[in-house]
Amino acid sequence: MSTTLIIANLLTILAFIAHTFVGDKALRLLESQQDDGDDTLQEKWTMSRGGWHMVSVDLLLATIGLALLNFTDLLQPREVYLQLLFIYFFAYGVAWFLVILISKSFKKNYLRLGQWMLLLVIAALVYASM
């Protein structure tokens, strides 16, 4: 058991909860703003919501994986799983940063959409526990 890995695990479960419940509430707000009867917009919104919750599932599985690494010996060799989780969080962080970089800018966009920072912090914590 590692303190840095426990912190990563706590951040991941908090991210899962926020993403799943707070994020879905924000998405539902967007749905109500497009009530013009256009099925194309509803289809795209539904696909976006599905993709959103695929990330929620990713965060849940990462939370479970980190908990198994923290509190059991089920995942062996441990280093391989830690390397995979490091790559996973690092890649998500970089991808999110790149999306902000190539998207239309708005005031404080890198801070307001700072999930990339959280993902890179989790990656660093996982890396530090290797």
In short:
The chain is an all-alpha fold. It is 82% helix and 0% strand.
Topology (SSEs and partners):
Elements: H1 3-32, H2 39-71, H3 78-102, H4 109-112, H5 115-128
Helix pairs in contact: 1-2, 1-5, 2-3, 3-5
Label this structure with key terms.
82% helix; 130 residues
Query: Topology as H/E string?
Result: HHHHH
Mean pLDDT: 91
**Strand runs, count:** 0
How far the N terminus sits from the C terminus, by CA atoms, comes to 11 Å
Report the portion of residues in β strands. under 5%
Structure description:
The protein has 130 residues and is an all-alpha fold. The protein has five helices and no strands. It has helices at residues 3-32, 39-71, 78-102, 109-112, 115-128.
